Amino acid sequence: MKRNFLNILCIATIVAIVGIVGLQRVQLQLSTGPFWDTYAFLANALYFAGKGIGYMELERPPMLSLLLSIIFMAGYVHESAIYYLDLLIHIAGVLGIFLLMRLRFNEYESLAGSITYGISPMVLKWVSVGYTDMAAISFSIWALYFTVLAVKKNGKYFYFAFPMAAVAFLTRFDIAFIVIPMTFMIIIHRSFLRNIKEILSGIFLGFLVLLPFLVLYYITYSDPFLPFTTTLGLTETLQSEKVQYIPDALYYIRNIPSMGFYLNRSGASGYIILLPLIGLVLYAFEIIRIRIRHEKIRKRVKNALGIFHPSLRVRYVIMLVLTISFFITFGRISYIISDLIMFTGIILFYMEFNDGKSLDIDLMILCWLLVFLNFHSNYTVKVDRYFLTLMPPLAYLFILGIRGLTARLENRYTQLVYPLIILFILSSSLSYLTHLSDDRDLADARNANRDVVMASSFFEHNLDCSDKRLVSDYWPAYSWYLRRNVNIMPTYNDTEYVVHELETKRYDYYFTFRSLDSAYYTTVFDSGSTRIYARNGTPPDRSRALYIGTGWHHYLEDVLDFKVKLDYDILGAGRLNAGRSLYIDSYSPRELKAYPRIFLFNFRWHDRNRAESILRDYVENGGTLIIDASGNLDGVLYNLDNTIFLNTTIQRSPAPIKFNVKYGNRTYTLSNFVSEDGGVWYGATYSAFGGEMNTVSESGGRTIIGIQRIGRGKIIWIGYNLVFHAFYYKNSDEKELIRDLLGLI
């Protein structure tokens, strides 16, 4: 009875503390306004609620928006709804970590651990901003909790564990790795033998949760898995994101003291983390000591550690090799390989040192921490927000370490350390909240949102809004406040790109933070930092071209000196590689005939034979097809390396560091072909198969640039990703060579 009362009291304390502190965070966010991604989730929620505004980003994880749409359907359509919803889900997650810790610790320890997680400064920075991180973590906590209950108490909890994992996955795709610690618990308890029916039923229920969204993505993208695979693929390919490109694999490890609880990157306060670390070391030694004593008592082997027993010696060597291998591979090769090494090592450790008490949960938490630490450490973009997935297991291990210390003291007053931890975290968090309003990210968002609201109000009350095409470089915000679709202005640093985009697309109004110089656009609103430009004439026509694929559309127009109006249909400005323009056979031969030129780079197809037939028909009827297969030299589905495409053999080849190209009566001087990190530059080279090719430039007997005439048209093969090379190195000769090849003098 007393235990139940203490649990209820702890739960009430959690709700009170996290709720009160969280409401202060909500008030701060209300004064700031939404962040960039928040607008996208708000727009998606309107779409799910049947109140779509034309703008949405369905490639984003849908669950938070789906839950928010219920509130919108009830009639409350305001950005504050997502802040309160985020807070409620977070409180549920804190309660989940409390219940999970109660399976291992007493009430006071569990309360201290859950509060440490629930209101730590790092968490407070990101809770109630309307992002998916905190909600996904909350759902994943409950997925783990139900898994532990299923393997330890009743297999029917699997009916909840797998659907909850599916909900977490749909809230944030990279949270999918939570299945690894779940799988660990299932394997070590052999639940796959005892509870196979419940496990399969739980997996089926989880699939039912996913199914509606697989259908949605199939209808939207013709690929039910595209948002998932693309999001995970970004971790392997993304190399920069403004100033947040940090290749250091140890970045998060180095910042555990500052990010974990204090957000103090200087000073001695972070060194307090040494106390629980010492406790964890003592706990590990205690596990080994018990094992030694156990072996001595049973006298199974000559040595207490069993180093003379062949089978035990082999297991110890394997564990040592796996441990060393994990540290060697960490951040250096695929995180999947490192995870497999780590997973195997933890299972072997459990099999060798299990005492039948709580080692299973402790190792599950360690697995949880290492999986996400490994994942985000391999991701070359490092931001503090990604550290959030590490916070629940860190809070657990923090309490485990403190317990490892206090257990040595054997004093009843040691339990007072946990109220002190709560008071310390509460004081630190409240102090942090008072300074959070000065945070640069919040200040920038506050100023931007203020300007957006002013410009939107002016537009609605003073300008002709009906049937006008709008565009903005802050399109999510304007779409939300104007309740209509605002087109995407790609992120250009040079205003020449912007002017070209405006004049070729002929938008009626442009909402921006930048200054613009165009004869066809005049300023109709200027707050000093935000402007609205209106079109005041009809820009001249430019030659049209179609781009199929992804990647080149960011810089091809610059290389062509803005002489071409490049058409493409890529959702989210290509952020997640989704859209019609990715696939050759998304277009009919009749549609392609409208374009004198078509560019292909990093392209795809639904049916390869049909795609080649469509392109061949286009060229035979007089079209000019420009192909660089350098974007199709890896992967499984669209790999053209060592294959024949349009009667041409394609091969991935290293580029010579230096070579020039002679075309017509001119020799073009090219920049050195060295990769962005100083290594070898690879790309596609070609050789004709069953036809003739006029070779403009070659290397090692293979064509770098070649012209192939078919019927009334031609194919211009360009290798080594020359278009990007010209753009990246800003080489005027390379740009002129490409324009001359296309006849754009």
Keywords for this structure?
alpha/beta, 11% strand, 7-stranded mixed sheet, 17 strands, 745 residues, 53% helix
Summarize it.
The chain has 28 helices and 17 strands.
How much of the polypeptide forms β-strand, as a percent range? 5-15%
- Provide the helix percentage: 40-55%
SS-derived structural category: alpha/beta
Instruction: Report the major sheet.
Output: 7 strands, mixed
Number of strands: 17
Spans of at least 5 consecutive residues with low confidence: 235-243, 265-269
Mean pLDDT: 87
CA radius of gyration is: 30 Å
Categorize the overall geometry.
globular
Number of helices: 28
Describe this structure in words.
The chain is of the alpha/beta class and 745 residues long. It is 53% helix and 11% strand. The chain is built from 28 helices and 17 strands. The strands form 4 sheets. Strands 7-6-8-9-17-16-15 form a 7-stranded mixed β-sheet. The chain has a 5-stranded mixed β-sheet with strand order 2-1-3-5-4. α15 crosses α19. The longest helix has 31 residues, at 2-32. 43% of the residues are buried. The model is unreliable at 235-243 and 265-269 (pLDDT under 50).
Q: How do the strands and helices of this protein lay out in sequence?
A:
Blueprint: H1 2-32, H2 36-48, H3 63-73, H4 80-102, H5 107-118, H6 121-126, H7 133-152, H8 158-171, H9 179-188, H10 191-194, H11 196-221, H12 226-237, H13 251-254, H14 256-262, H15 274-298, H16 310-329, H17 335-353, H18 359-378, H19 391-409, H20 417-436, H21 440-462, E1 470-472, H22 475-482, E2 487-488, H23 495-505, E3 509-512, E4 521-526, E5 531-535, E6 543-549, H24 556-559, E7 564-567, H25 589-592, E8 597-601, H26 608-620, E9 624-628, E10 643-645, E11 648-654, E12 661-663, E13 666-668, E14 682-688, E15 694-699, E16 702-710, E17 713-718, H27 722-728, H28 732-742
Parallel strand pairs: 1-2, 1-3, 6-7, 6-8, 8-9, 9-17
Antiparallel strand pairs: 3-5, 4-5, 10-11, 11-14, 12-13, 15-16, 16-17
Helix pairs in contact: 1-4, 1-5, 1-20, 2-3, 2-22, 3-4, 4-5, 4-7, 5-19, 5-20, 7-8, 7-9, 8-11, 9-17, 9-18, 15-19, 16-17, 17-18, 18-19, 21-22, 27-28
